[in-house]
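We emphasize that the prediction below concerns an isolated chain of 295 residues; any contacts that depend on oligomerization or on bound cofactors are therefore not represented. The input was used exactly as deposited, without trimming of termini.
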Amino acid sequence: MLSTTFVGYFHLVFTLPHELNPLILINKKVLFNILFKAVSQTLADFGRTHLKGKIGFLAVLHTWDQTLLDHFHLHCLIPGGALAFDRSRWIPARSNFLFHVGALSIVFRAKFLDLLDDARSKGSLQFLGRTEILATTQAWKHLHSSLRRNKWNVYAKRPFSSPETVLEYLGRYTHRVGISNSRIQSVADGKVSFFHRGRKPDTSTRLMTLHASEFIRRFLLHVLPAGFQRVRHFGLLANRWKKLQLERCFQLLHTAPVRCDFPSPAPAIPITCPACRSGLMIAVRALQPAFLDSS
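Result of the prediction step, given as a token string:
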């Protein structure tokens, strides 16, 4: 009889240097796609060289910090192991370690900058306002060398402790917006006051007050291009291959996917349409309120 085996999930965060922020704000779609590509290539390479197999992961784009300023980073959820390339076995990672963040940082930086140079050479980038000077070769080389010298931030959080924790994260964290209503303390006299956490080591809660125009400006920094997918799946979890690959993983782990059986809804009772007073309306489902939080 098949059992239920939990494969631990790791949580990695890849952050772009703030020197790139002005360029990103003008070229959101191009730069965000480069970010996803650089991170996915980096993790796939480490899965191949360190675990000797194919890993899977989910990446979520966040663009803000606690004060609603631009802070571009990807949160990645990664199962702790890999499927061998010949699909003959599951290769588990260590329970408390996946990849060295220092090595990840170096490879991530190199891949991102190579993709960024390629986008510029193809004419895919716009240079407006503060970034207009970057259209010159000298200024571009100066930015590039500065970015290559500096250490890029890749952060590893503690692995999730249980399947319930992973699901709670997915349900709450993946669809956050820049700020939730619960953090807004007041809106009065043309000003907005809201709570935010301080930076480490002092992460205590503080109150910030901004003029309404500045609050709106900061909030609009995080509007994504139309149709942009901020949650993406890669490797074993990629939509194209997920069913086939995961079935093989379950076989190798001698387990079975957990299935949720939802109760059948009560029979719908037709009601008279309040608009035309003649047609009948049938309730299909009840929409629950979405409580969105921020990081």
